Amino acid sequence: MESLRTHYSIDVTSKEYGKTISVAGWVEDIRNIGSIAFIILRDRKGTLQITILKKEDIKIFEELVNISRESVISVEGLCKKSDKARNGYEVIPHKVNILSTAETPLPLGVVDKIESELETRLDNRFIDLRKQEIQAIFKIRNEIIAAVHEYLKKENFIEVHTPNIIASSSEGGTDVFKLKYFEKEAFLAQSPQLYKQMLMSTGLDRVYEIAWYFRAEEHNTRRHLNESTAVDLEMAFIKDEEDVMKILENLVFSMWKRACDCKEELDVLKQKIEVPKLPFKRVKYDEVIDKLNNNDCDLKWGADLGSEEEKLLGKIMKKEGHEFYFITKYPIEAKPFYTMPQESKYSRGFDLECKGVEIASGSQRIHDVELLTDRIKACNLNPNDFKSYLKAFRFGMPPHGGFGFGIERFLMNLLDIRNIRECILFPRDRTRLTP
Ligand code: ATP
Ligand code: MG
After folding, report:
1. 214 CB within 6 A, ligand 1
2. Residues carrying CATH 2.40.50.140, the chain
3. What is the whole-number distance in angstroms between the Cα of residue 359 and the centre of ligand 2?
């Protein structure tokens, strides 16, 4: 336990009544009514009340009522039962330690009723993150990631860490951040794709990474970040993509279930969530096209779904009783070069959709080096840029598949958060590079 604090606000029980305790945190509010003052002190678990009678200790009284909001203090005092105070007790201070004085005015209020613009909030993220409802998002995030480790460990996956500075683009696209690597040119990895596949040739045949995706996409949308995180997974010796989809749906289920257990945080966020039913519906791409076309949406065969089409499909699927569904058997031309083709124009690629938003993409991959080289060329890429990747396919590569599953995308759907920027501590978007 920290020396400046013996108790967190909500951990104090009737056992402490009548005893001396130390509490520490931020001064959320000060109410001075002349002869008596109340300080609301906030710590990571909640808030508590400090009560000071002027006549009892004029020095401490003056010190506390003149402190600026959001200053950091520690207080030693008597823990006194009080039915009127929050948590059923108040602290009568006999020693106050001002650890850090907050400047005034605050760039952003913590408990103000008026809602600030997202931009202002993000500019002052360190204060924004002091709000209970914002912290709740990251506490839930922490829990769902714990659920990832737990579930995947149970399924015999090992966690790996692959390079973020790489020599060729991982997804083949042009949306890459270039950087100078001594005398060479390098890129920030769009995903661990190439490396996790290379690991499939090693015998470490089930791997995952909580990965950073760096994507130089120019668009500024409410569901894209330029730096995001994902559960990125690869598994070998699969029969086909269905093996991968089973792991993905069970993973999503475990994460969602764990989030349902975060009762306190969900209350703070005023969210009610229910565990989804397994298995998730599988819808073939061709059926998706039919469904869309029957609803006045004209999507050409072969194209990837745009956000509007995804949204419409989400509505159609919801009517049919599905919030989660896989779109399977994508046209090969809509999927990246490493995707396993099927019956020439189709592929073993799939997306997982949640409430009309893509949350994951995966596939069975090509493990034959000739076919892979052909696909690289067909996608207008140069096999020479993929030499070290391709080499891993020439000396024994088992059939394999995997997926990339966006953590922020998942969170925004889980908690009905409108903007993905709320789901990452310090978002990077088209214009934001600080804080
Ligand atoms: P989208 O079509 O939605 O832009 P994508 O198909 O380009 O995504 P993939 O390469 O399939 O993305 O990445 C796998 C998953 O990673 C996505 O389903 C999504 O959950 C997440 N993801 C990808 N790009 C981003 C991004 N720019 N911001 C946030 N999450 C992302
Ligand atoms: Mg995708």
Report:
1. no
2. 9-100
3. 8
Q: Which residues of 164-195 are buried (b: 16+ CB within 10 A; e: fewer)?
A: eebbbbbbbeeebeeeeeeeeebbbbbbbbbb
Instruction: Pick the closest to residue 212 from 195, 235, 200, 198 (CA basis).
Output: 195
Show Cβ contacts of residue 312 under 8 Å, excluding neighbours closer than 6 positions.
Answer: 292, 295, 297, 356
Q: Tell which CATH architecture fits domain 126-423.
A: 2-Layer Sandwich (3.30)
Taking the centre of ligand 2 as the mean of its atom positions, its distance from the CA of residue 181, in whole angstroms, is: 29
Distances in Å between the alpha carbon of 260 and those of 84, 256, 266? 32, 6, 8
Identity (one letter) of the amino acid at 76? E
Please state which of the four CATH numbers 2.40.50.140, 3.40.440.10, 3.40.50.450, 3.30.930.10 is assigned to the domain occupying 9-100. Answer: 2.40.50.140
- Residue 146 has φ and ψ, to the nearest 5°, of -60, -40
Ligand nearest to the CA of 193: 1
CA distance linking residue 231 with residue 248, whole number of Å: 10
Distances in whole angstroms, Cα of residue 320 to Cα of each of 283, 305, 309: 12, 19, 17
pTM for this one? Answer: 0.96
The CA-based dihedral angle spanning residues 375, 377, 379, 381, taken in that order and rounded to the nearest 10 degrees:
130
Confirm if 121 and 128 have CB atoms less than 8 A apart. yes
**Any catalytic annotation for residue 224?**
yes
Angle CA 337–343–349, to nearest 5: 45
Q: Kindly report the protein residue whose alpha carbon is nearest to atom 23 of ligand 1.
A: 406
Choose among 133, 323, 11: nearest CA to 1.
11
Name the burial class of residue 35, with classes exposed (0-12), middle (13-18) and buried (19+) by CB atoms within 10 angstroms of its CB.
exposed
Question: How many angstroms is it from 321 CA to the middle of ligand 2?
Answer: 23
Model confidence pLDDT, tens digit, residues 16-45: 999 999 999 999 999 999 999 999 999 999
Mean pLDDT over all residues of the chain? 96
Task: Choose the weakest-confidence range: 97-106, 167-176, 410-419.
Answer: 167-176
Decide: 361 in ligand 1 pocket, CB within 6 A: yes
Residue 1 confidence (pLDDT):
52
Q: Where are the beta strands (DSSP E) in 54-121?
A: 72-81, 89-100
List every span in the chain annotated with CATH 3.30.930.10: 126-423
